[in-house]
């Protein structure tokens, strides 16, 4: 059980009772991905063993680093979009990000492409800003032109996002991980606790947005959640993880193994044959090259199966295996004459997680929505992407849609509002939805739009001193449309 904490405004300290987290309950949904068990103990303080497998931590006083209107946990596509939208309403905003840059899977994960981005607002603004920086490389060529997708330069994406955040005076702290939450007696979230090189800190806010991707904040707060296609403590039927890489090679060679360079759509099979000719059988049966122009391309060539997204040790081993595989694939290809100049330029800092926690919300997106193309009165965006389920087992190979043809469907604002804890919102792939629906809406073009609505709703809730579920959708929509119009480029 997570104990309650009380805030002393005079001392500006949080007096915390000892927290004990049961391992089984953590796996069921109430503890952190990286848990509070690794928190720092001050010099000179002792610990007392209460069981062979646990250590009791002493009570402490935690300094409050900042109090703001909207606290965004996670600086990826959803989190940055939420922070920008909230700040544009006039709210005070703070981003907490565990990696060394903003952008999440776009940057630390080196995804190098944005899918389902044909949406107004920050999606369109971001394309324009990348265009102005000569860092948007056009369609990735894997889908019809009506489903807008594009490639981008990873380093420029970092710069564009961080410049925007600075312009809006949004607080940012990188290299900082959320390890616990502050709940009051009415099950309202009041802030979070973090660990970093600065030690343990507290951050208080009127509304907290979980944009961690894996629903870390919601899990810490005790919210119900789902993982994969019915994951249990002993089994994880989740989509595989992939580590992206960037390579350099002759432009003609890279082009040859992309959809744009293929007349029959079998470019992935031919690329796999090349990898196998180099002496390695890739774990992903549909290895893919995303040509960014010139001699640079990003690659997705590996799958890590059955890895729990809430198990740091398992994710670590998956990352190490994946990076090893990328290097071995490249070294094998280099033995072939036409690939002799191939180079592995970089690999992602973080492995790409498709299936994390999906926090239970006040509404949910379901497979029925996908099949029927359900349109919602309180829509934050329309998902136009297909059902994209990468094989859960290696023996199944590749990816598919389980026979489900997706029709464009809406994501309701209620799916962004936690059901079990007040003042907590979600944005990105950790919103409330089932396994099939999630396989469509999880792409980052949708995450951006979700972030915008979550950011504005959170800002209004703070301003009006109400919980997000008491904010009228029309009020959020009207304010967001005004923000979008104000930031639309003049023709």
TrEMBL record:
GO MF term list: 4 iron, 4 sulfur cluster binding; metal ion binding; oxidoreductase activity
Keywords: 4Fe-4S, Iron, Iron-sulfur, Metal-binding, Oxidoreductase
Database matches in InterPro entries: FAD/NAD-bd_sf, HdrA-like
Coiled-coil regions, chain positions: none
Highest taxon of the lineage: Bacteria
One Pfam family linked to the record: FAD_oxidored
PANTHER family hit by this protein: COB--COM HETERODISULFIDE REDUCTASE IRON-SULFUR SUBUNIT A, FERREDOXIN:COB-COM HETERODISULFIDE REDUCTASE SUBUNIT A
Protein name stated in the entry: Ribulose-1,5-biphosphate synthetase
Species of provenance: Novipirellula artificiosorum
